[in-house]
Amino acid sequence: MSLNIVLAEDAALMRAGLVRLLEGLGHTVVAAVADAEALLAAAREHRPDLVVTDVRMPPGFTDEGLRAAVALRAGDAHVAVLVLSQYTATAYAAELLVPSGRAGVGYLLKDRVGDVEEFADVVERVAAGETVIDPDVVRQLLGRQRAVDPLERLTPREREVLGLMAQGASNGAIGRRLAIGDAAVAKHIGNIFMKLDLQPADDGHRRVLAVLTYLRR
Question: Where is the HTH luxR-type domain (predicted)?
Fold first, then answer.
């Protein structure tokens, strides 16, 4: 089965790799974009058999891709969507998986992409109308109700960034302190917001809530 696919992935190397992989499997990538707005536009223009999207997208690098996937499924009962992620974005994952017409939906952790046969199978099953959920995603969604220190979800670098945020450091100051670029700082902060389950709002508000979570610990 050959599919027309719209791909959304902000990391250029990962995007190029996915295009090569999908086309090597016999599919056609009709558009490969780097942000959620372009994803929505490409899906409207090309009416693909399948949309494959990352969760984190510019400008916030939080869950823009996942929210775009939810919007696509809400607006078109026939669009099949496969979401790829480094980890489970709990805020919108359950909404994504709500049945929508006969269109397939998948939520796959990026580690699975390395198994080409498994990835190829998931792509075809989702395009055919099935629901495919990564077993690790299921476990994480079911585990949300357990009482866990939310800061344990953060990587050591993300805890460093949050600690500097708690000291009142700006993004620029954090970047200078940790010797990383502005884009890397923005990605770390976006990850912090997502892993602490801070719903999309203005970033200043979420920044305060993240710092309060850190200080309460």
Answer: 147-217
